[in-house]
Every structure is written in structure tokens, then in C-alpha cells.
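Hey, can you fold this one?
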Amino acid sequence: MKAWLTHHLHSLKLAAEPFRTAPLATLFTVLVIGVAVSLPTALYVLLANLERAAGGVKPQAEITVFFKDIDESRARELATSLRKRADVAEARFISKSDGIKHLEAAGLAEVAEGLPVNPLPHTLVLTPRDTSPAALEALAAQLRANPDSERVLVDTDWIKRLAALMHLGRDLVGMLITVLGAALAAITGNTIRLQIYAQKDEIEVARLIGATDRFIRRPFLYFGGIQGLAGGITGWLLVLGGGYLLQGSVTQVAVAYGSQFHLNGLTFPETALLLLLSSGLGWLGAFFAVSRALRQGDQG
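Sure. Predicted structure:
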């Protein structure tokens, strides 16, 4: 156990050596990795905040029921029965006379006065508890089946558009993670290849005196993991700083719409997953680079 720990500590010491001998080149590599990490992370954070904002400020989905030419008492009875449904959060009844008053309040008093009779139907505006498109359509179908319903209007287009945009955004995040993750591994692999080339003679001597491939590979793997972790931390800081800079503008927009909104960053589990992925991709890039170099050395 002591020998195993000594070997790993020695590998960590060797892995940290490039940070001391070539700090500028290592810093630029970490910054490049950080930018690659920050792009999908920023898009993910943006989508999460947009979904939260949409859930807080989007207009409540409503279903409007226009009744046939029935008595107001009958229309109110129907409104009362619908109000008791478990899938209905609120039901607002608008009588014929109330509808005329709304027209007059909207500046159409002359038009209302010129009508020989009140042509407006009794109306019920329902607010469903479940605002998903499928639930809205199901409730609307049940309302249309009511013999006293003349017409049922439900507008789910904006919900469908929002869901489609969010789905597109999640697909873009997935694509960016895949592409930039491969780029991160490639950047780390290229850095490792340069180090292997610079230490080619040392590696050959180590192999001649009996060093195993695992022993030779270990410092490079540690370096790749540490470099990926440093890039992940850099990317996280870039996203955090961007959110801080944008918070003032977001607050002004929220105030203009009469609301309050604060940008949320990554949660602790999300941050831990980000750092784990970036470190793992760095380790993976180093593994493939070293393995390839060792195979070429065996062939040579």
C-alpha cells in the first residue's frame, strides 16, 4: 500500500511539472478548454432560466366556452358544475350583459348601442390545472361534447411553440456537449503528444530499465485529468462571471414588465458533474494519446 501511494504521489509530482516549467502554454490550453466547456454550460444555464422565467411570467392557458342561446340561470349552473371539476383551477362566468359592458369599456359604446338585441352569448372562461397541450385538448373535447356548448376555443399554439423551442435548445446543448467534449479530449491529447515527444528519450530509458507502460502512462493521465479539471473550473467561472454581468440588464427588463427575476447558475450537483466530465474527458484524451504513443514505440 505504501509503495502504491508513493508511486501515485510521484506521478502527481511529475504531472504538475508542466504547470511549473511551461506555465504560459499550460494557461492558454486551460483557457481554451474553459471556453469549450463554458459554451454548452452557458446554453444549458440559459435554457434553465428561460424555462423558469416562462413558468413564472407566461400567460395562463385558458379555455373559452361559448354557450348556446340558453337562460342565464342554466348557464350559471353549468359554470358551477364545471368549476367543481378536479382538472379546473378557476372558472369565470361572463353573462351577456357583462359582455356588452366590456365592449363599452373598450371604447365600442356606440356600436353596442346600435345593436337591436344583445348578440353575445353567455361565456365561461376556464383555467385548467394541467396546461400541457394534451391535457388542454382533452378538456376541450369534453367541453365540446356538452350539448349546451356552442363553441369552445383553446389556444395551445404558444405552449407548443415554447415546448418545441425548449426541445430544440436541449438538442443543441446535447450536440455542443458532444462536439466540444470531443474537442476537449483532442486538445488534451495533442498537449500530451507534445509532452511525450519532448520526453521521448526519458521514456525510452525508462522502458529499457524495466518501467511498465502503466508506470509511464500514469503521470500523463494525471496531467490530463488535472488539466481537464482546471479547464472545467475555468469554464464554470466564465459562466458565473457572465451571469453576474448580465444580472443588471435582466433585472431592468424584469422591472419593466413589473416582475422580479434573478438569474440562477448551476446547482452544486450540476457543478460537480461538470467538473467530473471535464476532468474525465481530459483523462480520456490523455489515455488515448499515451496509448497510441506507446504502441508506436513498440512498433519502432
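The beta strands are 63-67, 88-94, 123-128, 149-154. Let me know if you want another pass with a different chain boundary.
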